[in-house]
């Protein structure tokens, strides 16, 4: 059974070659949908002989669904440009190709590399994701920018051994900047989906996020990085609701819509 690997990109010259190398041999085709990169992303992709499509950014969920729609084969493996398959996961996928139709989707763990160390506990691991699926039985959903695969009806799932290797922030500055960007996108998406925030969300939700990741899920076992991650998730949660409350206030006062 053939598999299409689909990837969305924007200025990913630092990561994309690693991602593509891990997909070679697993993929029967590789589709890259690029949001008009200005760096070397396109030239690197073309060296791998991928199907390269340029598409102005539609939103994380929308861009990924667009990429899936371009896949030639029914079974799609969706990767982010800063991800790669480890050898165990590659072998697991290769091993099921002959009988891939036994299940409608396949999940796998994601292992994150953060500031020079692999994070093996807390909210970031095992971070189970459905990434291999029959495109007729699933699609990207969730709330931007936090997309996820949503299965249709009674679609079946099997968990695979091995990890998606996620090469995330190399510095605290990168994490802070991404938090600011993502909370803006997410708070707007939440508002548009009818979600509303109250002051208690600024207190209770961040506390729960920190306690869950750092204590219950063992984030403390990752040392300083585990604390930084749990603290960042709590801060992200607080700012997300603060921005949502600000949207509510501005729109209430101006009787306007968000641009």
Structural class: alpha/beta
CATH architecture level-2 label of the largest domain: Alpha-Beta Complex
Terminal CA distance? 44 Å
Q: Please state the overall shape, judged from the principal axes of the Cα atoms.
A: globular
Radius of gyration: 19 Å
Quote the CATH topology of the largest domain. Answer: Spore Coat Polysaccharide Biosynthesis Protein SpsA, Chain A
In CATH, what is the class of the largest domain? Alpha Beta
> What is the makeup of the main sheet?
9 strands, mixed
Tell me, rounded to a whole number, the average pLDDT.
Answer: 96
CATH superfamily of the largest domain: Spore Coat Polysaccharide Biosynthesis Protein SpsA, Chain A
Count of discrete structural domains:
2
DSSP strand content: 25-35%
Give the strand tally.
Answer: 11
Which residue ranges are poorly predicted, with pLDDT under 50 across at least 5 consecutive positions? none
Helix content: 40-55%
Listing every helix as H and every strand as E from the N terminus to the C terminus, the arrangement reads EHEHEHEEHEEEEEEHHH
Explain the overall architecture:
Helices cover 40% and strands 26% of the residues. With 259 residues, it is an alpha/beta fold. The protein has two domains: 3-167, Spore Coat Polysaccharide Biosynthesis Protein SpsA, Chain A; 172-254, no CATH class. The strands form two sheets. Strands 1, 2, 3, 4, 5, 6, 7, 8 and 11 form a nine-stranded mixed beta sheet that branches. The chain has a two-stranded antiparallel ribbon with strand order 9-10. Strand 2, helix 2 (41-47) and strand 3 (51-54) form a beta-alpha-beta unit. Helix 5 (172-192) packs parallel to helix 7 and helix 6 packs antiparallel against helix 7 (223-254). The chain starts with a strand and ends in a 5-residue tail after the last helix.
